[in-house]
Amino acid sequence: MLDLTKFKGQPLKCAGLGEVLFDVFKEGPRIGGAPANFAYHCSALGLNSVVVSAVGNDELGRRALQILQDFGLNTAVQTVDKPTGSVSVEVDKDGMPTYTFLSDTAYDNIACTDDFLQLAAGTQICCFGSLAQRSECSRRSIQRFLQTMDPDLRLRIFDVNLRQNFFSKETILSSLAETEIFKCNDEELPVLMKLLGLPAGDEHDFYHYLNSLGIYGFIYTCGAASSTVMLNAEVSTLPTPKVHAVSTVGAGDAFTASIITLLLKGKTLKEAHKLACRVSAFVCTQEGAMPRYDKMLLQAVF
Prior knowledge:
Elements: E1 13-17, E2 21-25, E3 28-32, H1 34-44, E4 48-56, H2 59-70, E5 74-80, E6 85-91, E7 97-101, H3 114-121, E8 125-128, H4 136-148, E9 155-159, H5 169-176, E10 181-185, H6 188-195, H7 203-212, E11 217-222, E12 226-231, E13 234-239, H8 251-264, H9 269-284, H10 295-301
Parallel strand pairs: 1-4, 1-8, 2-6, 4-5, 8-9, 9-10, 10-11
Antiparallel strand pairs: 2-3, 6-7, 11-12, 12-13
């Protein structure tokens, strides 16, 4: 079972580990990347957060570091001789995005340095995904980071984030072995079940599979319809709030970050879930994946 009470009263450091990239819209580039988004939203909700990634020695890389600094985020971002990650984003009339990724970028070349491992040893909360593990270099570094975290006080969230063909059964299984809470959406679930050789089923069937691996937390989102969060024997399902969506980019990352942060701050599963829905709905009404929180939202959450 997953015991979150052991984190109470502990000084916690939270890492978003993986890609920092720019979502390139028609209107211009906006900083993103699921792990960076996660770290941003955890920070906005009061956790000590750090972005762990790599950028290029180029204009976008310098811009990324400046933006993250302006947001007040701590960074452990390496500068490497590869272009800063970017992804072309096309948003349809319903605010739903499609992505085209640049290959062999900075976040594909995260090095496993002494400083990197020292940071891992002092990190208690870490969110990571599959995209930055598409390269062998970053995959090895990410796995080492997860394994170096304190086994007695760590919460590792695997937000699978399937994109194009940038994933494999081997990567999914090795990541699940380093996971306490798993997150996916309704489009990813059937792909995962087929990839892992599981019979077709729903989120409850997949949660039983996760339990067999020793994973007792599951965050499952169904876009504009609903979301379900499972923690040990508890299950919470809520409809997605109806808003006029400008863009859904980053909403899932905000949802995950909110659930984790609020649970660690002592909210019940139902409370954390309800408030996380509100945070992600707010993000859908804003431009970009890292909008500044307004006072009314923060007052509602706390």
